[in-house]
From TrEMBL:
<feature type="signal peptide">
    <location>
        <begin position="1"/>
        <end position="16"/>
    </location>
</feature>
<dbReference type="InterPro" id="IPR039260">
    <property type="entry name" value="Cpg-3"/>
</dbReference>
<feature type="region of interest" description="Disordered">
    <location>
        <begin position="24"/>
        <end position="43"/>
    </location>
</feature>
<protein>
    <submittedName>
        <fullName>Conopressin/conophysin</fullName>
    </submittedName>
</protein>
<keyword id="KW-0732">Signal</keyword>
<feature type="compositionally biased region" description="Gly residues">
    <location>
        <begin position="24"/>
        <end position="34"/>
    </location>
</feature>
Length: 145
């Protein structure tokens, strides 16, 4: 049983964790033809599918699929209810959360309502997560090409 647990943890960390956006073959170079505007998007991210690149939807994978658990949904795991904190950053960035009323300030009737109606349900993206998730992180996945 212990071996299965260790193997499972290794598998999760080795194959399921997103990698940096700029990962790939490391060359950062195209074929040398053209201006390169078609090859790279904003921020120098290649416009081609790179396996295990961090993504928030299929569009981030340029022809591949973005896979993972709750990809493109607001992640409430950074904010533990009733945990002691000194500022909102200690609660995953949820605005107004340090007084344990962050979800209520965000329009939820209670913490339970947030878990049922918001956490891992609200859609978000790389560019809009601060507004969509009230400061919490947006769950990323991995590209599969």
């Amino acid at each position: 049983m212990r071996t299965a647990l260790i193997f499972s943890l290794f598998f999760i960390f080795a194959f399921c964790a997103p990698v940096d956006e700029g990962s790939g073959d490391g060359s950062g170079e195209g074929s040398g033809e053209g201006s390169g505007e078609d090859e790279f998007g904003p921020g120098g991210i290649p416009r081609k599918c790179v396996t295990t690149r961090m993504c928030y939807n299929d569009d981030d994978c340029f022809g591949g699929q973005c896979v993972g658990g709750f990809v493109g949904k607001c992640n409430c795991n950074g904010c533990i209810n009733l945990a002691r904190c000194e500022d909102d950053s200690m609660c995953g960035g949820l605005v107004g959360a340090c007084d344990t009323k962050g979800f209520v300030k965000a329009g939820m009737s209670s913490y339970g309502a947030a878990l049922y109606l918001f956490c891992n349900i609200q859609n978000c993206s790389r560019t809009t997560y601060t507004e969509d998730c009230f400061g919490l992180a947006c769950t990323a996945g991995n590209c599969i090409c």
